[in-house]
Design goal:
The protein is α+β, with helices and mostly antiparallel strands. It has one domain: Roll (Hypothetical upf0131 protein ytfp), CATH 3.10.490.10. Strands 2-3-1-5-4 form a five-stranded mixed beta sheet. The longest helix has 21 residues.
Length: about 250
């Protein structure tokens, strides 16, 4: 990746997975792997939205942006270390009136039918959510966003959002993904002990739910971004994981 893209955040230059190495760059080949993993878990073709439905959503959203300008994508979860798309610039950014919360229950990726996961979402709330904004070149946006949409909109549990963000370098108009409250997987904010219990046990073909949470906390620590909710949640998850190991022994 171009070192110039990291001029505002040089501490991240070796901490972002290159798109071509990402398991989440949703090319047709990667989608075939995900489909096979779903079949192994007894899930039929309806486990995800059709390619046509995903593409329709993408075009509806991007038609509201100026296609001749570069596109800013706001990342608050795994896109902060594994965006899986090519970008020209990265900035620290914040969105007012939203917060990180684990509010989506999933049985694919970092969960399975017997051991579901809770995945992160950008929920409306007090305060601000600090994350990363990636600038995608206008000439690349058509192809790169098609991959992002397959990843984020694969089951329709997320909804694309156009929001205003702030950054040390100036204001931004960003694309990001928030919750789809109408989707069956959206369980809302659960009590933190219940959230911790699910995360401590969730596991799927992409790894454990706990690993996701730990990587998220590491990324925010690298950026010197405090998050009381995530800190308390990780502490509870670690206690539960130690307890589970003790029971197994």
């Amino acid at each position: 990746m171009n070192p110039e893209a990291f001029r505002h955040l040089p501490q991240l230059i070796d901490k972002i997975i290159e798109p071509e190495r990402s398991q989440l760059r949703a090319t047709p080949e990667v989608m075939a792997i995900w489909d096979a993993a779903a079949r192994e878990r007894g899930m039929g073709p309806e486990w995800r939205l059709t390619d046509e439905s995903i593409e329709h959503s993408r075009r509806q959203c991007l038609d509201q942006f100026n296609r001749e300008q570069d596109l800013w994508v706001f990342a608050y979860g795994s896109l902060m270390w594994d965006p899986a798309f090519h970008f020209e610039e990265i900035r620290l950014a914040a969105i007012q009136g939203y917060k990180r919360r684990f509010t989506l229950k999933g049985e694919v990726g970092r969960g399975s039918p017997g051991r579901p996961a809770l995945m992160l979402c950008l929920e409306p709330g007090d305060g601000e959510c600090v994350g990363l904004a990636f600038r995608v070149a206008a000439a690349r946006a058509e192809h790169e966003t098609s991959l992002v949409w397959r990843r984020e909109m694969i089951r329709g549990s997320y909804a694309p959002l156009r929001l205003n963000a702030t950054s040390p370098q100036g204001p931004l108009h960003v694309l990001t993904f928030g919750p789809n409250p109408a989707h069956a997987s959206h369980v809302g904010e659960l009590p933190i002990d219940e959230t911790a219990e699910i995360i401590a046990n969730g596991i799927g073909f992409l790894g454990t739910n706990r690993e996701y949470l730990e990587e998220l906390v590491r990324r925010l620590d690298t950026l010197a971004v405090p998050d009381t909710y995530l800190g308390e949640l990780l502490a509870q998850v670690r206690v539960r994981c130690r307890s589970n190991r003790s029971k197994e022994n």
